[in-house]
Amino acid sequence: xxxxxxxxxxxxxxxxxxxRKTVLDDVSLDIGEHEVVCLIGASGSGKxxxxxxxxxxEPVDDGEILLADPDGRMVDISEPGLDPDPIRLRxxxxxxxxxxFPHMSVLRNITLGPTKVLQRPKAEAAALALxxxxxFGLADKAAAYPDQLSxxxxxxxxxxxxxAMQPELMMLDEVTAALDPVLVGEVLNVIRDMRGQGMTxxxxxxxxxxxxxxxxxVCFLKDGVIxxxxxxxxxxxAPDRPETAEFxxxxxxxxxx
Length: 257
Hints:
The protein has helices at 47-54, 84-88, 106-116, 122-135, 151-163, 181-196, 208-214, 232-235, 242-253, and strands at 3-14, 21-32, 36-40, 62-68, 74-76, 91-94, 169-173, 200-204, 217-222, 225-230. By secondary structure, it is α/β, with parallel strands linked by helices.
């Protein structure tokens, strides 16, 4: 396996010294090129914070986050003082909330980054945007505005916007959490397509059946620690840790697996 991202002994805490809360506690994980890793666990287990640290939205307190450069060398992107902007251009991030600009059309939402940040010609950016919209069943929505779209359509546009920046790594943070169950399938189909195209992805998700289907590796987090990581066939059927088994039993009881 060619490692794309390596997380080594990462720690992160929030709050004052008197009320310090550890959110990530000695987290280590290697993610291979073209691999899909799903982070599962209860709310507050550290999944979203880990994604935010990888995307340099939160500085780590200790440890390293290494990203392979074009020559395959592992570079510490979490080094204090490092300009985060060039790194963020290589890492796509999609959140629960769509964060689309309401006063811009779908096409403008998607082309804004490529034209303003990457300095791509408008025609080139528009051509890529339209290609991606067509790929994800949104070709007829290019001129629409966000408030004219369903939640599932808005989330698909948010994913297309991230893909239009042509990232090397894509992170998705509970991207179906705010959606009506009927619309969840639309977004999951987009992620399936991305997997088929070989995109390296890290997903924080509560969609256990989907994680079981799509992941190469599933990591169970509790209290900021990766307690167990294994391929889905192993983790979902014969977990090693009792905490993982207990969590999965609750998931099964709720009808989510």
